[in-house]
Specification:
The chain is mainly α. It has a single domain, classed as Cytochrome c-like domain (Cytochrome Bc1 Complex, Chain D, domain 2, Orthogonal Bundle), CATH 1.10.760.10. The protein is built from four helices and no strands. The longest helix has 29 residues. The N and C termini lie far apart (42 Å).
């Protein structure tokens, strides 16, 4: 059986389209289970910025997930005001799950 070039392209495009949905499911669970919701909410500012504000700030940045993963692991300051984000104790969360949570945040 010969696989056409169009079939390969369609399969790749379908996978790319489904990736954000996977992030939405897994990322949301990680976000909630490691306590991110204590400081961040979708629409209401808490200690940290809203998820919508984070998504808007980093929209279109190709390296946003990796860059934000570094900020979550290492902490950051002077990005959203005077209150720094301390390094988050997410050592129990592997990089793939952390990036899924960040990917989910960026869908807001």
């Amino acid at each position: 059986m010969r696989i056409s070039r169009l079939s390969v392209i369609l399969v790749a495009m379908t996978g790319a389209l489904l990736a954000p949905a996977t992030w939405a499911a897994d990322g949301e669970n990680v976000f909630k289970s490691v306590g991110c919701a204590a400081c961040h909410a979708p629409d209401q500012p808490r200690v940290g910025p809203t998820l919508k504000a984070v998504a808007a700030k980093y929209k279109g940045q190709a390296n946003a997930v990796d860059m934000l993963a570094g900020k979550v692991r290492g902490g950051s300051k002077d990005v959203w005001g005077k209150v720094p984000m301390p390094p988050v104790a997410v050592a129990q969360v592997n990089d793939a799950d952390l990036k899924a949570a960040i990917g989910w945040i960026l869908t807001h």
